[in-house]
Design a protein that fits this description.
It contains two helices and 14 strands, in the order H-E-E-H-E-E-E-E-E-E-E-E-E-E-E-E. By secondary structure, it is mostly beta strands. Strand 3 and strand 4 form a beta hairpin.
């Protein structure tokens, strides 16, 4: 998966950015691709929340690293407002041993037997943002994000398998922008987050950017994703940490 993510990044850099730089008119789009390793520091699961066994999925599958990539597109509606689209897939599937007998999603799994743990958390987001500050060194925006959560947790042990799938929409607050540090260097910030009694979601990216030219920026940074739900059907809280390289093109 890590090699696959690097390949996507290479194709994006060598093909799309040079083509995008030829389109000098309007330039309403800014498309960014991030790729790199991700580690899971926590992934606690209990399904159903009232009768299932709470267990650590990251102890079963390991902490990583795993491969990941993310695509973000910003579109300027006018000088002050715009849209943001995010595609952020995440899938982990590894073998391990359960530490205890585990009741999960209606099935019982025994301890000490090779078990495959699968964790999927694909995120599709649409944001509407307002640029509240802009000068020669920085620009900042704030907005509302609607996040479609495509999540699945599964266990497989021999011929026995069980899974829990959840598809839902979550509203988040979006804050993002950039501050120029020097002639070609800048700091980029990207955040979506919200909290409620039923759960929370926080996604923060910090990247150092280097401008190759007027329309192309190389990125190196860190991202953290933390959150989960504590409701009648599901208890799941996870924390992921990303190191990423990326490229951003305007056209």
């Amino acid at each position: 998966m890590i090699r696959y993510s690097t390949l996507i990044l290479s194709v994006f850099t060598t093909l799309l950015c040079p083509v995008a730089s030829l389109a000098q008119t309007n330039q309403k789009w800014r498309v960014t691709l991030e790729a790199g390793p991700v580690w899971q520091s926590r992934n606690d699961v209990q399904i159903p929340n009232n009768t299932g066994t709470r267990f650590s999925l990251n102890r079963l599958t390991g902490g990583g690293p795993f491969g990941n990539f993310r695509i973000t597109a910003l579109y300027d509606l006018n000088r002050k407002t715009g849209l943001r689209l995010v595609y952020a897939p995440l899938r982990i599937a590894e073998m391990g041993l359960l530490a205890q007998q585990t009741s999960f999603a209606g099935a019982n799994f025994v301890a000490g037997t090779p078990t495959e743990g699968i964790y999927q958390f694909n995120s599709y987001r649409l944001s509407y943002w307002y640029r509240f500050h802009q000068d020669h060194r920085s620009q900042w925006r704030v907005g509302l994000t609607l996040k479609v959560r495509d999540a699945r947790v599964a266990l497989r042990q021999g011929g026995l398998g069980s899974s829990d799938y959840n598809l839902g929409v979550v509203p988040l607050i979006h804050v993002g922008g950039e501050h120029r540090l020097a002639d070609r260097w800048k700091l980029l910030v990207d955040f979506d987050g919200a909290a409620a009694p039923q759960g929370r979601a926080f996604d923060l990216g910090l990247h150092l950017g280097y401008d190759l030219g007027r329309d192309t920026t190389l990125l190196l940074g860190y991202r953290t994703l933390e959150g989960g739900a504590n409701v009648k059907q599901v208890y799941n809280f996870a924390w992921f940490n990303y190191l990423s390289i990326g490229v951003s093109c305007r056209f």
